[in-house]
Write a structure and sequence with these properties.
The protein is α/β, with parallel strands linked by helices. The protein has 26 helices and 15 strands. It folds into 6 domains: 4-82, Winged helix-like DNA-binding domain superfamily/Winged helix DNA-binding domain (Arc Repressor Mutant, subunit A, Orthogonal Bundle), CATH 1.10.10; 93-156, Winged helix-like DNA-binding domain superfamily/Winged helix DNA-binding domain (Arc Repressor Mutant, subunit A), CATH 1.10.10; 165-298; 308-408, PRD domain (PTS-regulatory domain, PRD), CATH 1.10.1790; 415-503, Rossmann fold (3-Layer(aba) Sandwich), CATH 3.40.50.2300; 516-652, 3-Layer(aba) Sandwich (Mannitol-specific EII, Chain A), CATH 3.40.930. Helices cover 55% and strands 12% of the residues. The chain is globular, with a radius of gyration of 30 Å. The two termini are 49 Å apart.
């Protein structure tokens, strides 16, 4: 039996940390939980067989299971399971298509398909099918795949062919992760040692910083890859044509030819040192313009400005987004930096030479509101400057926005606390001093009670930090040692986080009760595409007059800009304009999962926001992602919420772990467990 599903499961288990339920894995794979259990058993059998056959492991040493089973589901033993990681098959259709592209790139006169089929022991029909995959891969890249009798010819400029190589490398790295041998194979480097890319990237970043630039390390690695591709192609007699359009006109965004000349000299030295290559003027200028538009930004100088039109567009977009999302982005320094970034974006857009951002998905999942603001900025900027931005470039905008908001962000609402510390001399002062020192930024001690018999009911603070147990244990009380230990500090910090989370969820539950309704709940959500799901979820809201058809169309358009799957299981489609008559949510659960962009999600919430409730946008948006993006919470809804009353009961109730009467000191908690075990033994 094929191991394809097992290999997909192995990749999923290695990617995720912690326990994963059978239901979650089944939805991610599009199979049943029973099939998942069967795959796990087969994977463990494979791991056991590999262990026994290994010459480096004693025969009498038992192997740990590659996948551990437990009440919470399944968890990978990473070192064991990684040995079963599926190897890239050179015989797979995708691998054959990439190999055919590599052959076409190396042969200006084309490739004889009949001979290629015979050499690879494939039928001509298989080669024809592979050629169709190649045609799909080169579509829209300023290249032409032509058929001349038995020969296939890939024609286009050298610059376009190099962009194709770079794109294929990035796509393979996205699938397999960074690996030197994979990178070299994907880039089809023949004359260049791929192990030189790391040292070249580090040296390039260090030298650029010494020259006074801010450096984007992710783009720096990309520039090193382009240098390796340029060196390899030049060594094969395929230098960049002098007439090929450059990625940028450096004078548009920097100090002109002086910057270009300095970076050209730097790249000439580094390519010679690390790649043993002697690149020509066209290649060096191409790499220098790429570096100036992707890798660096001018540091410090207030005199370096973007084009006035670009700055005007960015300033208008920042102002609109600030008003719409009620955030403070209107700062001259922020606008100047963002304008310089957008100017480089426009230059990259002209050549479709986008920068990759490996943090895009984590930005979406961890900071959905920041990413949403970045999408709004991208929408305004793209419309005014007439270019479309991919997700990775929106991710860089989100990093600008996040940096500004983090710098201006107010601290979260302070948690108030009362210290109860009857004791000897100034022990209570020592305890307060220690709490202020370690937790002062998150806990505000408003009173200290030193009496032996305090009025516990009079304490109205969020937390009570006590060196003596309260008469009636409760979740507000954290019992501490008289001398604060690190363990005590960690438990108080956990209690603070719990209080904040409880506040947020209480606020969310209050709002959700108003915004959800039975007639806008779909289980199952029987849709096959994102657009179909959005339109299906929008129907009941349109029928009730909450939104009109244009809002649904705008939600589809927003989805096309950037996927709203902010986590790996939950999507929040919505329009960017708040035009609904009132805020409402239409919710759907996709049985078996629903393809959504590059992911497979399990739940969808179409959110319609009204102008009158603009202040609720941030709270609802971020906390929806927090609650339904939590795998355990979502799985509970998927497993037990068969209808609207059942589901809403689950998602509207307090989200907390096992209830505890009181957070006690480690000693008292241990004594309680020991006493319980003794009682159980006596009963037995």
């Amino acid at each position: 039996m094929s191991t394809r599903r097992q290999d997909q499961l192995i990749s999923l288990l290695l990617k995720e940390e912690g326990w994963l339920t059978a239901a979650y894995l089944a939805d991610a794979l599009g199979v049943t939980p029973r099939s998942v259990r069967s795959y796990i058993s087969q994977i463990n059998s494979r791991a056991s067989a590999a262990h026994i056959s290994s010459e480096t492991v004693p025969e009498d040493e038992s192997a740990a299971p590659a996948v551990e089973s437990g009440p919470d589901g399944y968890r990978a033993d990473a070192p064991t399971l990684s040995r079963l990681r599926p190897e890239r098959s050179e015989a797979s259709p995708d691998a054959r298509a990439r190999a055919l592209i590599s052959a076409l790139l190396d042969a200006p006169s084309g490739v004889d398909l009949t001979r290629t089929a015979a050499r690879l022991h494939l039928s001509e029909a298989t080669i024809e099918a592979d050629l169709q995959r190649v045609r799909a891969l080169v579509l829209g890249r300023d290249l032409r795949l032509e058929r001349v009798g038995p020969r296939a010819v890939l024609s286009g400029s050298e610059a376009a062919q190099r962009r194709l190589i770079s794109s294929l490398v990035h796509e393979e790295m996205d699938q397999e992760g960074f690996d030197v041998s994979s990178m070299r194979r994907a880039a089809a480097l023949r004359s260049i040692d791929a192990t030189a890319l790391g040292p070249l990237s580090r040296a390039l970043g260090a030298r650029l910083r010494d020259m006074g630039y801010y450096v984007n390390e992710f783009a720096c690695a990309d520039a090193a890859l382009h240098a390796a591709i340029a060196s390899d192609r030049a060594a094969q007699g395929r230098p960049l044509e002098p007439s090929a359009p450059a990625d940028a006109e450096p004078g548009d965004s920097f100090e002109g030819r002086e910057d270009m000349s300095r970076v050209v000299d730097l790249l000439r030295d580094l390519c010679s040192e690390h790649l043993s290559s002697d690149l020509g003027p066209s290649d060096l200028e191409h790499l220098a313009s790429l570096t100036l538009t992707r890798v660096v930004a001018p540091a410090g100088s207030e005199t370096v400005r973007a084009d006035p039109h670009v700055e005007e567009v960015v300033s208008a977009a920042v102002g609109r987004v600030s008003r719409c999302y009620m955030v403070d982005l209107e700062d001259p320094a922020f606008t100047r930096r963002l304008s310089l970034h957008v100017q480089n974006l426009r230059l990259r857009a002209q050549q479709q030479a986008w920068s990759r951002n490996p943090m895009t998905q984590s930005l979406k999942a961890s900071y959905p509101m920041v990413f949403e603001i970045a999408v709004a900025l991208a929408s305004d900027i793209s419309e005014s400057l007439d270019f479309h931005l991919p997700d990775d470039e929106i991710g860089y905008l989100a990093m600008h926005v996040g940096g500004r908001l983090e710098a201006e962000r107010r601290a979260e609402t302070t948690i108030t606390a009362t210290i109860v510390s009857p004791g000897y001399y100034d022990l209570n002062e020592l305890l307060r001093s220690r709490i202020d020192e370690t937790l002062g930024s998150s806990v505000d001690v408003v009173s200290v009670e030193t009496g032996i018999d305090p009025d516990w009911s009079s304490f109205d603070t969020d937390l009570i930090l006590s060196t003596v147990p309260p008469p009636s244990p409760n979740e507000r009380t954290v019992t501490l040692a008289p001398f604060l230990t690190q363990n005590d500090v960690e438990r108080v910090a956990a209690a603070v986080a719990r209080v904040r989370r409880t506040r947020r969820l209480a606020e969310l539950r209050t709002k959700l009760r108003r915004y959800f309704s039975p007639d806008a709940f779909f289980r199952p959500l029987e849709a096959s595409t994102e657009e179909e799901a959005i339109r299906m979820l929008g129907e009941p809201l349109v029928e009730r007059g909450i939104i009109d058809a244009s809002y649904v169309d705008a939600s589809v358009a927003r989805e096309q800009m950037s996927s709203t799957a902010f986590t790996d299981s939950f999507a929040v489609p919505h329009a960017m304009d708040m035009t609904s008559t009132r805020t409402a949510i239409s919710f759907g659960i996709a049985e078996g999962g629903l393809p959504w962009g590059d992911q497979r999600i399990q739940a969808v919430a179409l959110v319609a926001f009204s102008e009158a409730e603009r202040d609720a946008f941030q709270t609802i948006f971020e906390q929806l992602v927090e609650v339904f993006g939590d795998r355990k919470s979502l799985q509970r809804i998927l497993q037990r919420g068969r209808d609207f009353p059942g589901s809403s009961t689950l998602w509207l109730r307090p989200w907390s772990r096992r209830p505890r009467a009181c957070l006690r000191s480690p000693g008292s908690w241990s004594r309680g467990r020991t006493s319980a075990r003794r009682t159980a033994r006596r009963a037995h």
